[in-house]
Amino acid sequence: MKTISLSKPWLDTTAYPFDNKFLQLASGTMHYIDEGKGETILFVHGTPTWSFLYRDLIKKLSNKYRCIAIDHLGFGLSEKSASFPGTPEWHSNNLSEFIKRLDLKDITLVVHDFGGPIGLSAGINAPDRIKRVVLYNSWLWATDQEKEIQRIDKIVNSWLGRFLYLNLNFSPRVLLKKGFENKQFLPKNIHQQYIKPFPTKKSRMSLLNLAKALAGSSKWYEEQWGQINLLANKQWLIIWGIRDQFITSKYLRKWQDRIPDAKTIEVDSGHFIQEEKPEESMIAIDNFMT
């Protein structure tokens, strides 16, 4: 692992004032941040975000805990390649390698969006390393029978979907914004931090690959769901944005049925709670860990 000074004119180092670290994995060079000391919190993002999503939580929580946040390969400041497979299965394998290489233990695993299946699968792969789970709006079961997901899958696998994702950078420009209940929490300068990591069509393949995997990896999600018992006995905190228009409270109820001992906090927020309600989110995690 190494610390590197980045030359990214677009990167807001006031909002994101962390040392940039890199680890060479078998599949590529992964960027991450590693702040503070104490029990380990590992933050796992979804799409089209990166570790920047957790910046406000890390600024506060790193005063008491060791906070590690990765950028999946193809996202944020990590290496990008149009040839990456980019499936959640592949990302999960990369995360498993990262956890082993840093020999992380007693992890509080924080997951959101696609980071749910990616991070939880890595936890299932090494349950002895996981102490707690913090789950934001996400899923871990078959998706291919959901009508809305079938509709999305049809679009993203069409010429139109490819054009929108690769030519117009549709995911961070448009879909990210739709995930906010209150758009005032996504000012232009912050929105740019999610748009700028994907400057070219090739760099946007990671976005398209995960969009295709929403239904395309359905069987794999279901396989992980069948093994969730390996993590079910951990301490769980569910922080759920009740205004999320896509990953709705229907998903929350499925989690609560499967993990009945989980503590649940419902937040008046859209999909990106970390941006809309960072203070509330940080306090919930801190209280959960103490």
TrEMBL record:
Residues 40-278 form the AB hydrolase-1 domain. Pfam families: Abhydrolase_1. GO terms for molecular function: hydrolase activity. It comes from the Bacteria. The lineage of its organism: Bacteria, Pseudomonadati, Bacteroidota, Cytophagia, Cytophagales. This is Alpha/beta fold hydrolase. The keyword Hydrolase applies. Keywords: Hydrolase. It comes from Mangrovivirga halotolerans. InterPro entries: AB_hydrolase_1, AB_hydrolase_fold, AB_hydrolase_sf, Epox_hydrolase-like.
